[in-house]
């Protein structure tokens, strides 16, 4: 099956000479959630804007549902819904009319049943007659999503959808995204909240300085690149790590009551058994052990910092 979105060697250079996208290639399957992660200025919004036809690409190609975004832009754009970072809504218009108007912009016939379905899906139905200016920030973001879904797109771009939204509403947004995926919508999500990607994404793409550093299934990425930490709680506190344990690169925490040991999940041996034997030989009594896996945020930070170091060299 052909991907719903195919991007090949996409480049964007501004008149100033700044190269915002440097040969980005990416394929996204229908019905998946892809989290596009990257620091500020990495090229996330530029990439989305290029695919959506807001920015003109310098070179390369992109197709949506088989339609080239440059040669067959109208058909490609009809398949795309975009929720931008900025909240830009007519403040005096009612919610229902705002969403229905967006449907008309794409030449779709009037369909009150579909508009009602979208508003109910986003918990906006009871606010349908409210003016946009009367809504909270979280509700306004829901209206932006409703507008993007009004013309029944197959691909939905969410550019920082939960920025400025409190934790409870953010969790509601995750639920909405999961429901949209179940209805067959393909979702590309950019976010600064890496726990969002960890919670709902199928795959993760990391972009830095206009280049894609990595595209991988979330679970496989965390398995392949993740590290684990072993926390060793001691019966008696230590003033310092004994010299005989230097090979394990331990750190002493919590007033000398806990030793922390990092190990690679991909290694043939973790070294934990050797460490415990060395602790016993040093006369150190262990009270408790617990492990902690590295998060997607740890992996992301490592990738981006690694890219920055390579660029500096």
Structure, described:
By secondary structure, this protein is of the alpha/beta class. The chain has two domains: 5-223, 3-Layer(aba) Sandwich (Rossmann fold), CATH 3.40.50; 227-293, Alpha-Beta Plaits (2-Layer Sandwich). The chain is built from ten helices and 14 strands. The protein has helices at 44-51, 73-78, 95-105, 112-121, 137-149, 167-182, 194-200, 218-225, 272-281, 296-312, and strands at residues 5-13, 19-28, 33-37, 59-64, 67-68, 80-83, 155-159, 186-190, 203-208, 211-217, 227-234, 251-253, 258-264, 286-293. It has a six-stranded mixed beta sheet, sandwiched between helices. Strands 2-1-4-5 form a four-stranded antiparallel beta sheet. The longest helix is centred in the C-terminal third of the chain and has 17 residues, at 296-312. The model has no long low-confidence stretch (mean pLDDT 85).
């Amino acid at each position: 099956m052909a991907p719903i979105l195919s991007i090949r060697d996409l480049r964007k250079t501004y008149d100033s000479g700044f190269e915002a996208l440097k040969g980005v290639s990416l394929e996204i399957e229908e019905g998946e959630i892809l989290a596009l992660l990257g620091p500020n200025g990495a090229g996330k919004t530029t990439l989305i804007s290029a695919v959506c036809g807001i920015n003109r690409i310098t070179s390369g190609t992109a197709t949506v549902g088989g339609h080239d975004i440059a040669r067959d832009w109208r058909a490609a754009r009809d398949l795309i819904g975009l929720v931008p970072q900025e909240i830009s809504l007519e403040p005096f218009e009612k919610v229902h009319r705002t969403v229905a108007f967006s449907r008309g912009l794409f030449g779709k016939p009037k369909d009150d049943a579909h508009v009602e379905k979208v508003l109910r899906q986003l918990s906006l139905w009871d606010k349908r007659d409210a003016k946009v200016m009367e809504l909270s920030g979280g509700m306004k973001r829901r209206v932006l999503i409703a507008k993007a879904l009004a013309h029944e797109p197959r691909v939905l771009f969410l550019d920082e959808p939960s920025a400025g939204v409190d934790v409870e509403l953010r969790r509601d947004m995750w639920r909405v995204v999961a429901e949209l995926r179940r209805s067959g919508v393909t979702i590309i999500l950019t976010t600064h909240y890496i726990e969002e990607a960890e919670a709902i994404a199928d795959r993760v793409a990391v972009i830095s300085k206009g280049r894609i550093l990595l595209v991988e299934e979330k679970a496989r990425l965390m398995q392949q690149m993740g590290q684990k930490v072993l926390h060793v709680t001691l019966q008696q506190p230590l003033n310092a790590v004994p010299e005989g344990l230097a090979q394990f690169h331990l750190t002493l925490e919590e007033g000398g009551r806990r030793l922390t040991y990092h190990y690679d999940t991909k290694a043939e041996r973790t070294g934990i058994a050797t460490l415990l034997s060395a602790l016993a030989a040093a006369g150190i009594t262990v009270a408790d052990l617990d492990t902690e896996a590295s998060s997607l945020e740890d992996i992301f930070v490592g990738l981006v910092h690694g890219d920055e170091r390579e660029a500096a060299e």
